Amino acid sequence: MRIDILTVLPGLLKGPFDESIVKRGIDKGLVEVHVHNLRDWSNNKHNKVDDAPFGTAAGMVLAMQPLHDAITDLQSQRDYDEVIFLTPDGETLAQPRVNQLSLSGNLMLICGHYKGIDQRLRDHVITLELSIGDYVLSGGELAAAVLTDALVRLLPGVIGDETSALSDSFQDGLLAPPVYTRPAVYNGWKVPDVLLSGNHAAIDAWQEEQALARTKARRPDLLEGRDL
Prior knowledge:
The protein is of the alpha/beta class. 33% of the residues lie in helices and 18% in strands.
């Protein structure tokens, strides 16, 4: 997989991709992550990449020329499965969408900034718009890092135990059950007996029961429409 990220603040993305799972995927050659400075495509003598909006709206908008030129330039080099704009009014990112995107070959991520991007680019160039939640960030860089991390951890070979990702919250539409580790008794607090029983069928049944109970208590919206 290759992920190209267009941003006006490339420095914001150095840390997330130099550590942990994403770095492991990069080091293993399982994913390429390329962060591009949008200013490199600006034809303004000061490398300006924003402009005032038409109408009476306050704030600034990412300028049409550098963003369109950057997208066009990258598209001339390879085909992209999706050109994704990270924006608060996009589709809320959820695990099924992450699963689907993890099968892609090439993805381009556009980090929104200021008041966003020209609607004509959204109408004619962007193929998918995603949001990581109902709140506003200073830009789309952190959202791009979240999406990249969610994608890379699903790539075969990135995580040592590949079945681990399949048991995460949301993979089966439920939250994950509680987990415990050694020692079996700590400070008087005991691990549930079933987890020490060695009875795999009983353990699986307990985990399914706990996952359902936790989902009912914390995210009942995930159960809407399910026949339980």
